[in-house]
Specification:
two-stranded antiparallel ribbon; single chain; 27% helix; globular
């Protein structure tokens, strides 16, 4: 399981950020922290609440934020447009990201075998995980204040 202090596992997927293009995490690491916000399913209630909170209540100025789900890129493109999400979404239908971060959720009762567990990771410019949050129960959202703090700390370390 990926935890604080670990090197962030690299993975490839598809980025939905206006267009659909290849995504590799290592290519996105650099000067500012990267936040990976894993969520189970586009268009579901709690996931939409979380993505809207990240849009409206989370200060993205000091980081690069990506929402990550196992949804297909074209579904994520429609979702991103409908909810006016100003950050990229990463489509992980091959489960490379959720396996690398060990955030796999069984959703068989919904007719889908595997989705992303709701989780958030902050990765500093050196590629080290500095913050990890995992949902303990269905419908739980991250502590956005704690996430803001974690990003600020990672950004301050990069500036030092």
């Amino acid at each position: 399981m990926t935890t604080v202090g670990d090197d962030a596992p690299d993975f490839t997927a598809s980025l939905v950020d206006g267009d659909i293009e290849p995504f590799r995490l290592d290519d996105r690491l650099g000067d500012e922290p990267v936040v990976l916000a894993f969520f189970p399913a586009a268009f579901s209630n709690t996931c939409t609440d979380e993505m809207e909170a990240l849009r409206d209540e989370f200060d993205r100025g000091d980081c690069t934020l990506f929402g990550v789900s196992t949804d297909l890129p074209h579904a994520l493109a429609a979702y991103r447009t409908q909810y006016e999400l100003p950050f990229g979404l990463v489509g992980d239908p091959d489960h490379r990201a959720i396996e690398a971060y060990d955030v796999i959720e069984d959703f068989e009762h919904y007719g889908v075998e595997t989705v992303a567990q709701r989780a958030v990771f902050v990765i500093d410019g050196d590629g080290v995980v500095t913050y990890r949050w995992l949902a303990e129960h269905s419908g739980q959202e991250p502590d956005y204040d704690a996430l803001d703090e974690a990003v600020d700390e990672a950004a301050d370390e990069a500036a030092a």
